[in-house]
Design brief:
single chain; 320 residues; alpha/beta; six-stranded parallel β-sheet; five-stranded parallel β-sheet; 11 strands
């Protein structure tokens, strides 16, 4: 028996369990609650999965850390489960919390009871070196939940969007906005990070904790997506995919994960330089045929390499 553990809402994973069952892999869904803080919710979800399953069952966790929690729960309560943690995304920050998480990951990933996937080969190699573990992680590119629409590039004026919940370099967005005073920037960020930016220029509007429809509305009315991240771990991929289907060219910094998805054909990789971000935004606004080609190529890439069916098949073939 397979148990698919997701954090929060089942609606974001409509096909995984159905697809597994269609392929003869008997799978049931188990979820985390939404009534507590994130860490408590994650622990409760992992506890539910361990309790729902039986000896020898496999728990597949959509959020990798919940898979790590399942391993430790099984270890400490003497229960035998197989664990699959999808899309390892341990951050490379130097905080106490991240050091503690690295300890949990390190010993879990050494266990034969735990398998894991990566969404970037380069990130996987760096993670192995960092945690001092010698094993291979299958590459299963992050799933693209196709929204049912595919829009071409459109010039909506000098409007740039940046948003998301985790690991954005908000300070860089502010600095780039100062270099492009004729452009209008919209930032949507978590409320607990609002204090990390100050002296916001007049061409930037900042919103916090908005509804999903509002978030998508601002993205839709923009011309470009600016997505600088401050970690080598997977971050911003869902927002990047959504923006691509809305026809937005992606400007992001060159990290271990972003290099797996953004190449010469799709999106615009930028070095660690604010002026380079500004220059490339100006260039592609003035060369919109090239911007449109980037969007078309990325949409094709998502269809062919990150489809839900391909994701399920690779999990089965490469992991299970």
């Amino acid at each position: 028996m397979y148990w698919f553990l997701t954090h929060y809402d089942k609606k974001y994973f409509p096909r995984f369990v159905e697809g597994m069952n269609d392929r003869g892999m008997n799978t049931q869904w188990v979820h985390s609650p939404i009534s507590h803080g994130e860490r408590v919710n994650n622990f409760i979800g992992a506890w539910r999965a361990v309790n729902a399953s039986k000896k020898g069952d496999t728990i597949i966790s959509w959020y990798d850390f919940q898979g790590i929690l399942c391993y430790w729960i099984c270890l400490l309560t003497f229960r035998d489960r197989n664990i699959v943690a999808l899309n390892l995304r341990l951050k490379d920050k130097t905080t106490f919390v991240n050091h503690a998480a690295a300890f949990l990951y390190k010993y879990a990933l050494r266990s034969k009871k735990v398998k894991a996937t990566i969404s970037s080969k380069e990130y996987g190699e760096a993670l192995k070196k960092r945690l001092k573990i010698n094993r291979n992680f299958p590459l299963v590119r992050d799933i693209n939940l196709y929204p049912g629409y595919c829009m071409p590039f459109k010039d909506n004026g000098k409007r740039i969007f940046c948003g998301g919940n985790q690991s954005r370099d908000w300070q860089r967005v502010i600095r780039v906005a100062r270099l492009l005073p004729e452009y209008k920037f919209v930032i949507i960020m978590p409320g607990n990070e609002r204090e990390t930016i100050n002296n916001v220029p007049d061409n930037v509007r900042v919103f916090c904790n908005v509804p999903y429809k509002t978030f998508m509305g601002y993205m839709h009315s923009s011309t470009f997506l600016l997505l600088p991240v401050n970690t080598n771990a997977p971050a911003g991929l869902v927002v990047m995919f959504e923006a691509t289907w809305l026809g937005k060219p992606i400007f992001t910094n060159s990290t271990q994960v972003m290099r797996e998805y953004i190449g010469d054909e799709h999106g615009i990789l930028v070095g660690n330089d604010d002026q380079e971000f500004a220059d490339k935004i100006e260039y592609y606004y003035n060369h919109q045929d090239e911007a449109a080609e980037k969007v078309d190529c990325f949409q094709k890439y998502l269809r062919e390499e990150c489809s839900e069916d391909k994701f399920i098949d690779r999990v089965i073939d490469e992991v299970l």
